[in-house]
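Structure (tokenized):
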């Protein structure tokens, strides 16, 4: 995996990206079929560019491992630290909630009460996912099922605007969603 300079200077993030790459091995992004780990790498880069600590950037790299792999919180605590594990858990869905809309609403509420560091990890994730969705729409591959994602991203923007107004990640998410407004719908 290609490394940027900041990763080489950030041992925890370096380890987190290696862990994410191994756990997400074989998974691909829906939009373009590239390795899924591209998404956690982008989230980590967004957090680094926003000036966050190695722990927050590492949590960004790991933000999907509890939802999408066999990793568990105890393993994250042992391998990384309690704060990284807490942040990853704070931005992870509650699987027992079967209805997608209710699950995403519960996630937004969970993030809203988890503190600024969890909020910015969530925001960076939404920026990256909104970019993917916009690329899908730009290539004429926006599907009806994408409407619920778009709805979640808009509700996320509303929540983030209340919690961290004027934050650069909130502004980036707003720009991505506004760019979606100009694209043809299904």
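Design, position by position:
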């Amino acid at each position: 995996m290609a490394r940027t300079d900041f990763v080489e200077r950030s041992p925890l993030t370096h380890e987190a990206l290696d862990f994410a790459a191994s756990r997400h091995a074989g998974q691909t992004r829906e939009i373009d079929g590239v390795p899924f780990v591209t998404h956690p790498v982008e989230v980590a880069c967004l957090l680094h560019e926003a000036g966050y600590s190695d722990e927050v950037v590492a949590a960004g790299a790991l933000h999907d491992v509890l939802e999408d792999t066999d990793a568990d919180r105890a393993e994250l605590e042992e391998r990384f630290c309690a704060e990284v594990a807490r942040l990853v858990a704070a931005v992870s869905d509650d699987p027992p909630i079967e209805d997608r809309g209710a699950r995403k609403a519960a996630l937004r509420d969970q993030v809203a009460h988890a503190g600024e560091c969890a909020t910015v990890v969530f925001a960076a994730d939404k920026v990256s996912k909104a970019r993917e969705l916009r690329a899908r729409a730009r290539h004429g591959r926006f599907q009806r099922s994408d409407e619920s994602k778009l709805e979640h991203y808009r509700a996320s923007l509303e929540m983030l605007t209340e919690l961290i107004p004027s934050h650069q990640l909130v502004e980036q998410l707003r720009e991505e969603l506004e760019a979606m407004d100009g694209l043809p719908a299904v």
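Reviewer-requested clarification: The chain is about 70% helix and 0% strand. Residues 12 and 58 are 6 Å apart (CA to CA).
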